[in-house]
Structure formats: C-alpha cells, structure tokens
Amino acid sequence: MSAADLTPPEAARWAARSGLPLANERHAGVAATADHIHSVVSVLRELHFGDTPPAAAYRAGGEQHDAAV
Are 22 and 12 in contact (CB under 8 A)? Predict the structure, then answer.
C-alpha cells in the first residue's frame, strides 16, 4: 500500500494497531501527514550518495580550520 492510498480510517486503524488510538477529528490530519512523510522519504530514496560515509563516521571538532579571516 502506498501512502497516497492511505485513507483517514486506515490511518486510524494503523495507529490503533500501534497502540496509539486517535480521536475521530485527527484521522484526516494523520493521514495527510503520513502522505507527506511518504513523499519526502520517496525523494530521499532516489538520492545517490555514492561513497559518502555514514554520519557515524563524522567526528565533530576534527576539522582543520585553515581559512584566513
């Protein structure tokens, strides 16, 4: 199922299955938010990072500051 197919009742059902019962007035908002998150994640999945190391490989403070001000 794609997020575009997610209806407010389905969003409520999935939330309830996760132990998060929703009030009726929140069903449409949760479905719309899930659709938006799905569209953003879909774009991120299309990015090609190549040889970019994972964030865990980055050490803050290890940069060499060699620019003159």
Answer: yes
Cβ neighbours of 3 (radius 10 Å): 17
Cα-based torsion angle of the residue sequence 24, 25, 31, 33 in order, rounded to the nearest 10 degrees: -140
- C-alpha 17/C-alpha 2 separation (Å) is 18
Q: Which amino acid is at 42?
A: S
**Amino acid present at 10:** E
Of 7, 33, 38, 9, the C-alpha closest to 22 is 9
* Single pTM value for the model: 0.62
How would you write the pLDDT of the chain (69 residues) with one tens digit per residue? 454 578 999 999 999 999 999 999 999 999 999 999 999 999 988 988 888 777 776 677 766 767 666
